[in-house]
Amino acid sequence: LSLADLDGTASVIGRPLQDLQVYLLDPYLQPVPMGVPGEMYVGGAGVTRGYLNRSELTAQRFISNPFTDNPQARLYKTGDLARYLPNGELEYLGRIDNQVKIRGFRIELPEIEALLTQHPNVWESVVLVREDEPGDKRLVAYAVPHSQTSVTAAQMRQFLETKLPAYMVPNAFVILESLPLTANGKINRRALPAPDLKSQLTQKYVAPQTATEEMLAQIWGQILKVELVGIHDNFFELGGHSLLATKLISKIRNAFQVELSLRELFSASTLIQLSQCIEQLKRQN
């Protein structure tokens, strides 16, 4: 191990042994590009013929190797998520079981966690799906800053927005001094607190002042089910997501007779920014 390994949070597992092959594949069994997460499949001399007296599990885990002409060759489906680093080594990202589906999008939680820990001020992170209100599933990121540093939810959101599609950016960010652990040292996901959006609202609240801001605050309140919306509040930090963003654009079209794109909403996500964007569109019309 090097000092860089000790200071980093990545789980680098090195390179395959000479008599083994490791493939990182997408759900269609196609190799993924370097740096892109994929499920790890192992082939070669070390792969066994299957599980003893468990034919169904063997059929699930041991598949025919599509990368060789040998009809007897098999690949073992590990269920692990990993990616290749530029130096050719493998970085372990977690179990494929941590893949979730929200509003029709399939999301790899370990991929978000791995990217969030690339932020220079983030030491470790956990991302999970919370359903604190029935039927309302939201991505929540928990982050522990490096010692002697600090990080804000806005900074983490902006960082991920440059690296991920909008539907994979968490709806809320919670900053912790440390992640809760179970008795055997694993992260206790059940002990992670719900994001306290109301307290954040109270601390930041500045009342709407123009007619456009007041109308927009009412629309946000209806869509996000919050009572108080200030001009510096962020639509996505209040719980907005891509589906609600589409609904917001429709309501803005009806209320202000302007056509707002999803891209414009993501780049002007606070109430005051969005209000200014609407005013500019009205002048253009």
List key phrases describing it:
Non-ribosomal Peptide Synthetase Peptidyl Carrier Protein, Chain A, alpha+beta, Luciferase, domain 3, 3 domains, three-stranded mixed beta sheet, six-stranded antiparallel beta sheet, 285 residues, GMP Synthetase, Chain A, domain 3
Explain the overall architecture.
With 285 residues, the chain is α+β, with helices and mostly antiparallel strands. The chain folds into three domains: 3-94, Luciferase, domain 3 (Roll), CATH 2.30.38.10; 103-195, GMP Synthetase, Chain A, domain 3 (2-Layer Sandwich), CATH 3.30.300.30; 198-284, ACP-like (Non-ribosomal Peptide Synthetase Peptidyl Carrier Protein, Chain A, Orthogonal Bundle), CATH 1.10.1200. The chain has nine helices and eleven strands. Strands 1, 2, 3, 4, 5 and 6 form a six-stranded antiparallel β-sheet that branches. The chain has a three-stranded mixed β-sheet with strand order 9-10-11. A hairpin with a 5-residue loop joins strand 5 and strand 6 (90-95). It is elongated, with a radius of gyration of 23 Å. The relative contact order is 0.08.
Produce the secondary structure layout:
Elements: H1 3-7, E1 11-14, E2 20-25, E3 38-44, H2 55-61, E4 62-64, E5 74-84, E6 90-95, E7 99-102, E8 105-108, H3 109-116, E9 122-133, E10 136-145, H4 153-161, E11 172-175, H5 197-204, H6 211-224, H7 242-256, H8 262-267, H9 271-284
Parallel strand pairs: 10-11
Antiparallel strand pairs: 1-6, 2-3, 3-5, 4-5, 5-6, 7-8, 9-10
